[in-house]
Design brief:
104 residues, mainly alpha, 75% helix, 0% strand, elongated, DUF1622 domain-containing protein, DUF1622
Length: 104
């Protein structure tokens, strides 16, 4: 429930911040900020959901089937998290940003 709440509250917060900035110049920057804010809330919510699945699998009698389901869920959510991170940052996670703001 916490993970879902984080995603919903984060999405609403990102939307409210976007609407407040509507009158400001720089439409592309505002849209980029909205996408970044929304993506970060989804990432945080996904982290909570993965943790809940792990705790649920360990707390209940772990079987091979439940571990296989957990592995599938973790793989899918990891892929989603990775994709969102690339979308937010605009670069691969292993690419560093130099002090000038340029990728290295």
């Amino acid at each position: 429930m916490i993970g879902i709440a984080i995603i919903v509250v984060g999405a609403l917060g990102a939307l409210i911040a976007f609407v407040r900035r509507t009158g400001q110049p720089g439409k592309e920057e505002r849209i980029g900020d909205f996408r970044s804010d929304l993506g970060r809330s989804i990432l945080l919510g996904l982290e909570f959901l993965v943790a809940a699945d792990i705790v649920n699998t360990v707390a209940i009698e772990p079987t091979l089937q439940s571990l296989a389901v957990l592995a599938g869920i973790v793989l899918i959510r990891t892929f989603l998290s990775f994709s969102l991170e690339v979308e937010i940052e605009g670069r691969w996670p292993w690419q560093r940003v130099s002090g000038t703001g340029r990728e290295t």
